[in-house]
Design goal:
alpha/beta, 7-stranded parallel sheet, 28 strands
C-alpha cells in the first residue's frame, strides 16, 4: 500500500510537519498535488510532500479523500515554502496556511482596473533610459530611482522590451497598488494585496501562475506567492519598513524572501529606491549597485551658522529669502517637518524631571490641552505640577508642527499656511503647506503635481536622533525622497541641518559614504553582519515569563557565535530577549528555535 506524506494547509505548532495518509488503490499522486484529506473530524486541503511504499509506525491511518482540481505546486514553489518555514522557525503547514489563500467554491471575478497612460516629461526620459540600461546589463541589482513615477516608467518600459516575461512588482502597501494598477493593467494584471477576499486573491495568483496575466502587483503578502512562472521581480521603495511583517506570525521580510527565491531560480531581481541601505552593499555585488549621481544636489543650509540672522531657529535667513522668491513667482512652498503637536517634550525647569509615557516609556508630545504618546496612543491632560518636586515651572522643549505653523504665519503674514498630518488635514491648496511623512506616504497623489516651486526639509537632522543604527540611512532616504519630489515639480530643494558635512559626504561620493557606514556596522557587530533574533512571550505573569525566557537563553548562550542580550520587560504585556547570531551559527540556532514551545513568538530577522 502506498503512503503519502501530506502537509495540511492549516495553522499548526512548529514541531509538526507532514502527516501520513494511505493512498487509495488507483489514485495517482505526485509531489505538489493539492488533495482533500480528513483532519480533526473535518475535510481540509493539503499538499503532497512525498509518495513512498513503506511501513508506517502509526496504526489505522486515514485515507486520502481525493485529488483537488487546483493546479499542482511546482517543485520551485514547494521548495520555497519549505525553505521559508525553516528560515522563520515555523511549521510548513502554518507557512502554507499563511501564504495560500482559500479558493472560492465558485469562480471569483477579478476586479477590473481602468487603464491610464503614464505621462513623463521629456527631461525625465534620459534618467529612465539609464535605469533601463542598467537593468539590461545586470540580472540582479540595486538601482537608485528618485520617485515612484520613474519606477513605474522603468517597469512599463521593461514590459514593452520583454513581451514574454512574467513580472512581479512588490510595493510597500495598498496605496501604491491602487496608484500603479491603472498604468500596468494593459499588460495583463493580477493584484495580491491581502485586502481582497481569499477567493479573489487565489484567482489572481492562479491566473499569474497559468500565464493568463503577465504582471503580479502586490504588497509583502505577494512575496509568499512567488510563482515558478516569475521571470523578474521588482521591489519598489526597497528600504521601506512595510516590507517587513512585524506584528503577527509568520514574521517575515519580503526582501529576504525574494532574495532566497532568486538564489533558487536565478530569476532577475531589482531593488528600487531613492537611496540604498548600507545592507545593499552586502546583498549585491559592487557591479550590481547602480547609483544615479544625485543631481541637482540639495541646497544645504547650516542652521548653526544662520541662527544669529534668523527670526526663528528653523526658518533660516536663506530659507526666508527662498520662500519669498517662490511666492513672488506665483508658486507654492512645501515644508516637511516630521514632529507633531506644539512641542516635542515637557520638562520641569526646577528639577529637570521629564514626562515619559507610563505605558510604553515613550516620549509625550505636547498639544494645546493634552500630552500624547505617538508610540502607543496614550493621551493625558497637561500636568499642572511636577510629580517629582511639585514645581509649577513646566517648560515645553523642541518645536512641534503647530508651533512651526504659527512661526510661518508670523513671518509671512500675507500668506496662507496649512498643516497636514495624520490628525489634521487643512486646506491643501494653501500657498505654504507644512506636512509630515503622512502627506508623502498617505495623503499626496503619487503621480500628480502641486505647483510647488520650493520643497524644504526644515530639519534634516531629526531622524539622526533615533538611537537605532539605521538613523543615518533613514535621514538620507528622507532627503532623497524630498529631492525626488522637488525634481518632479521642477522645484528648488533646500535641506536645513546643523551638520551639513554628514549629508554632503553622500553627495560627494555615495558609494564611499555608505561603505564607511557599513564598516561601522561591522565594527559594532550589527546587521547585516549578524542576524538578530527575537523571542517574546506575551503574558502578564512576568515572573513565569522571565523564568521561561531565562531557560531558553541558556540554550542559546552555550552556542558559538551567539550573543544573548538581557531580558526586556513590557509592563503588563510580557517579556522578550534578543539574540545576535553570526551567519555560520544560524543553522544550529534555527534547529534549536524549532524546538521551542509555540507560546514563544519568534522573529528570526528582528532587525531588517
Amino acid at each position: 500500500m502506498l503512503i503519502a506524506e501530506i502537509y495540511p494547509i492549516q495553522r499548526m505548532p512548529r514541531k509538526f510537519s507532514a502527516f501520513d495518509y494511505l493512498v487509495p488503490e488507483g489514485l495517482k499522486l505526485e509531489r505538489g498535488f493539492f488533495v482533500q484529506i480528513p483532519l480533526r473530524n473535518q475535510q481540509v486541503l493539503g499538499i503532497v510532500k512525498e509518495i513512498h511504499e513503506r511501513f508506517s509506525p502509526r496504526q489505522n491511518l486515514k485515507t486520502v479523500i481525493g485529488i483537488s482540481s487546483l493546479p499542482k505546486l511546482s517543485e520551485v514553489e514547494l521548495k520555497n515554502f519549505e525553505w521559508l518555514a525553516k528560515d522563520l522557525a515555523q511549521s510548513i503547514p502554518s507557512i502554507l496556511n499563511a501564504a495560500i489563500p482559500t479558493p472560492a467554491k465558485r469562480p471569483s471575478a477579478v476586479s477590473k482596473v481602468v487603464p491610464l497612460t503614464l505621462k513623463i516629461r521629456t527631461s525625465e526620459v534620459p534618467a529612465i533610459q539609464r535605469s533601463l540600461q542598467a537593468i539590461e546589463e545586470r540580472r540582479m541589482a540595486f538601482i537608485s530611482v528618485s520617485d515612484i513615477t520613474r519606477m513605474t516608467a522603468v517597469v512599463a518600459a521593461y514590459l514593452h522590451a520583454h513581451p514574454k516575461d512574467q513580472v512581479t512588482v512588490l510595493v510597500p502597501g495598498l496605496r501604491e497598488i491602487e496608484a500603479l494598477a491603472p498604468f500596468l493593467t494593459g499588460f495583463g494584471l493580477s493584484i495580491v494585496s491581502g485586502e481582497e477576499s481569499e477567493g479573489r486573491r487565489f484567482t489572481a495568483w492562479n491566473n499569474f501562475r497559468a500565464r493568463q496575466t503577465r504582471v503580479l502587483l502586490g504588497s509583502r503578502v505577494a512575496s509568499l506567492l512567488l510563482s515558478a512562472a516569475t521571470d523578474v521581480v521588482f521591489v519598489f521603495h526597497s528600504g521601506h519598513e512595510n516590507h517587513k511583517q512585524r506584528d503577527r506570525n509568520p514574521r517575515y521580510d519580503a526582501r529576504d524572501i525574494v532574495l532566497g527565491f532568486q538564489r533558487q531560480t536565478d530569476c532577475r531581481l531589482y531593488f528600487f529606491d531613492s537611496a540604498p541601505r548600507a545592507d545593499d552593499f552586502v546583498l549585491f555585488k559592487p557591479e550590481q549597485i547602480y547609483l544615479e549621481h544625485p543631481e541637482p544636489r540639495p541646497i544645504f543650509v547650516n542652521l548653526n551658522d544662520e541662527r544669529p540672522m534668523s527670526e526663528h531657529p528653523l526658518i533660516s535667513w536663506t530659507l526666508d529669502g527662498a520662500i519669498n522668491d517662490c511666492l513672488k513667482s506665483g508658486r507654492r512652498v512645501l515644508c516637511f517637518y516630521n514632529r507633531k503637536g506644539k512641542a516635542s517634550s515637557l520638562r520641569c525647569a526646577d528639577c529637570g524631571q521629564g514626562f515619559p509615557c507610563p505605558a510604553c516609556a515613550g516620549v509625550f508630545t505636547v498639544y494645546e490641552t493634552s500630552i500624547r504618546c505617538h508610540h502607543c496612543g496614550r493621551a493625558e491632560p497637561i500636568p499642572l505640577l511636577c510629580p517629582k518636586c511639585g514645581g509649577i515651572r513646566l517648560v515645553e522643549k523642541g518645536f512641534g508642527n503647530q508651533t512651526i505653523k504659527q512661526a510661518l504665519l508670523k513671518q509671512f503674514p500675507e500668506t496662507t499656511v496649512s498643516l497636514i498630518d495624520q490628525a489634521i488635514q487643512e486646506d491643501d491648496s494653501a500657498q505654504i503647506l507644512l506636512v509630515t511623512s503622512y502627506y508623502l506616504e498617505t495623503y499626496r497623489q503619487f503621480f500628480s503635481r502641486g505647483n510647488f516651486g520650493l520643497v524644504v526639509n526644515l530639519d534634516a537632522d531629526l531622524p539622526l536622533l533615533d538611537p537605532g543604527f539605521r538613523s543615518f540611512e533613514n535621514a538620507l532616504r528622507i532627503v532623497e525622497d524630498l529631492r525626488g519630489l522637488a525634481t518632479r515639480e521642477s522645484a528648488v530643494f533646500v535641506a536645513q541641518t546643523r551638520s551639513p558635512e554628514i549629508f554632503s559626504a553622500y553627495y560627494d561620493n555615495p558609494e564611499a559614504c555608505l561603505k564607511k557606514e557599513l564598516e561601522l556596522r561591522r565594527s559594532y557587530e550589527v546587521p547585516p553582519f549578524v542576524r538578530w533574533v527575537s523571542l517574546k512571550i506575551r503574558d502578564p505573569e512576568e515572573l513565569r515569563v522571565e523564568l521561561e525566557l531565562k531557560t531558553a537563553a541558556e540554550i542559546f548562550r552555550s552556542l558559538p557565535g551567539v550573543t544573548v542580550f538581557p531580558i526586556k520587560y513590557e509592563h503588563g504585556k510580557g517579556c522578550s530577549i534578543s539574540l545576535s547570531v553570526e551567519p555560520n551559527s544560524m543553522p544550529v540556532v534555527l534547529e534549536k528555535l524549532s524546538e521551542l514551545p509555540d507560546r514563544v513568538i519568534i522573529d528570526t530577522n528582528a532587525v531588517s
